[in-house]
Amino acid sequence: MAKTDKEKLGINTRLAHTGNDPHAFFGFVNPPVVHASTVLFPNADTLARRAQKYTYGTRGTPTTDALGIAIDSLEGSAGTIMVPSGLAAVTIPLLAFLSSGDHVLIVDSVYHPTRNFADTMLKRLGVEVEYYDPLVGAGIKALLKPNTRVVFTESPGSNTFEMQDIPAIAKAAKAAGAVVMMDNTWATPLYFRPLDHGVDISIHASTKYPAGHSDVLLGTVSANEACWPKLHETFISMGCCAGPDDVYQVLRGLRTMGLRLEHHQKSALEIARWLEQQPGVAQVLHPALESHPGHALWKRDFSGSSGIFSIALDGGGQEQAHAFLDALQIFGLGYSWGGYESLAVPVFLGDRVVAKGPYPGPVLRLQIGLEDVTDIKADLERGLAAARAA
Ligand SMILES: Cc1ncc(COP(=O)(O)O)c(C=O)c1O
């Protein structure tokens, strides 16, 4: 089938078939997991010119090609690199496009380890780091300087789920010659395709929904035509390639990601709406809820929502937050999300410059897993009752 015809297929059809050509490998439905450092060349001349498709394990294998093709087709990108974690998928493009003396604008509701990298390593390398309000929209224009080289976005934001006006930000940033990056882990390319909205580089912690089972760490970075050569060159220079088994597990995860996401979406929305009615809950921070201040932007740009959001209790502090968390029996207390199981963590906003509330009580982040909604609600009722009693 021609590439353009393939792109017209429904999303679950594409997830089932993209990134593998069974007849290129004896008809096996799945591609081989190639474990490789050395690749042999047939003679000295081919070796001297490196004139063959695969030359060394760090530079790509049939396994990384399979996932790369699949992600490019989902993202609409010119190329995708695979790195050992979602955090590496953030740090490598920042290192690729920033040099000493450059200015970077980073959204204040960014994933905390991204901020930590910027505040430590980027600053040490002589990059000027500035955080901006997630609600800035076209107003980002006023913050752009002649040396602004990168505008980093994440929408919705980590933990507090503010929506950014990505097209407006991308337009202003591009006009000023800056590269626009987006951590798009929350939506996955199924519910938002950053490159279609003016973003240059789309970043994913594939650890989350693509892997889906809390047992794999992987990151992907996908670039448009203009940014791909530099991204790829940095990836090769750094030798920061992902292991073949992890790459394979993420390709395997993609096959069911559409179905899993639909379930996460449906359960999370039902629970979020229910939580809005529960005593002790002051706010539910989920952009697909009509009550969310960023709902109109979400509705305009996104085609779905995933399974992670936060709640703010209507008073109290750490004691109430701990009582809530300790009463949970189904939710695990632990970091990450996108797996099959429900998780809860307290949210820390002490490092924020702008997007720090105020919230009336502690903020708790909930990842809604694939368990039955009735059981999840009963667990949350236990948590809320314990918080009220604390
Ligand atoms: C928005 C976001 N980006 C990136 C990451 C990093 O992913 P990883 O855990 O694979 O390093 C996370 C992890 O929680 C995340 O929430």
UniProtKB/TrEMBL annotation:
It is an enzyme of class 4 (lyase). InterPro entries: Cys/Met-Metab_PyrdxlP-dep_enz, Cys_b_lyase_bac, PyrdxlP-dep_Trfase, PyrdxlP-dep_Trfase_major, PyrdxlP-dep_Trfase_small. Its EC number is 4.4.1.8. Its cofactor is pyridoxal 5'-phosphate. Keywords: Lyase, Pyridoxal phosphate. SUPFAM superfamilies: PLP-dependent transferases (SSF53383). The modification N6-(pyridoxal phosphate)lysine is found at residue 208. GO terms for molecular function: cysteine-S-conjugate beta-lyase activity; pyridoxal phosphate binding. The keyword Lyase applies. It comes from the Bacteria. It catalyses: L,L-cystathionine + H2O = L-homocysteine + pyruvate + NH4(+). NCBIfam families: cysta_beta_ly_B, PRK05967.1. Belongs to the trans-sulfuration enzymes family. This is Cystathionine beta-lyase. It comes from Mesorhizobium denitrificans. The lineage of its organism: Bacteria, Pseudomonadati, Pseudomonadota, Alphaproteobacteria, Hyphomicrobiales.
